[in-house]
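Title: Prediction job returns without error message
Component: structure pipeline
Severity: low
Priority: P3
Assignee: unassigned

Description:
Job completed but the reporter wants confirmation the result is attached to the right record. Sequence as submitted:
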Amino acid sequence: MRDRLETLLEFSDELPDLPESYRARRDAGENRVHECQTPVYMWVEVVDGQVEIYADVPRDAPTVRGFISLLVAALFGAAPAEVLAVKPTLLTELGLVEALGMVRMRGLHAILHRIKSEVQRAVAKAG
């Protein structure tokens, strides 16, 4: 379990900075994941058939930041079908439930759900 947390903490340093084009919208409170206690702002788009994820998470929330960074690393550039195929049990499969507790898990589930919902919405709109 400790190894998983350490990996998550390492990923927290890898989250790219939020592009300038989204910063004013973040500052205006747009696209916050309200289900997460940590102030997480996230944009998910499908551009030329590839998923793009941009997020802003405070550095003082390394587990949440690490999880989002992991998702960005795994899903940025993926086809929408690949993102939609991510199982809702991902957090359990990663062994994070025991390590992080239920309150954090709710927020992390909400983040994954938001990504998949935004991709689904973009696919339906392009449809």
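Comment from assignee: result matches the submitted record. The mean pLDDT is 91.
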